[in-house]
Amino acid sequence: MKMSQDCIFCKIIDGDIPSAKVYEDKEVYAFLDISQTTKGHTLIIPKQHVRNIYDADASVAESLFARVPKVANAIKEAFQPVGLNILNNNEEAAGQSVFHLHIHLIPRYGKEDGFG
Ligand code: 5GP
Ligand code: ZN
């Protein structure tokens, strides 16, 4: 598995940086975002280090996006939100701050949940 030594998400996958795991299998890892936009805000990442969607080949993208419903339902069960936003930032101009491909799953709790 290709890793990047300076990447904080690769360190999270390796367990060198602690994280609150939501889901894991051979290809992907999902964990709570350190800055909870809403309760249960989760990131899902490929275990293979890929900078962002521009560098993802079909098999990385396929396994990553294919896991979204499973992780979304795990979050739904744990946190009982009434909706969900799915977000993916690519490059700095689009708000990407960690350069290891990731999908944000942001549970929604109604108009007063403080997000959008
Ligand atoms: P981006 O802005 O690149 O789309 O999202 C990166 C996300 O990673 C941010 O929401 C940020 O809070 C989260 N993040 C950054 N460093 C860490 C960390 O060490 N642990 C966890 N769990 N999340 C992190
Ligand atoms: Zn990485």
UniProtKB/TrEMBL annotation:
Molecular function in Gene Ontology: methyltransferase activity
Keyword Cytoplasm recorded: no
TM segment ranges: none
Domain (HIT): residue spans on this chain: 8-115
Keywords: Methyltransferase, Transferase
Top enzyme category: transferase
Intervals of motif Histidine triad motif: 100-104
Presence of keyword Methyltransferase: yes
GO-annotated biological processes: methylation
Domain of life where this protein originates: Bacteria
EC number: 2.1.1.-
Protein name from the UniProt record: HIT family protein
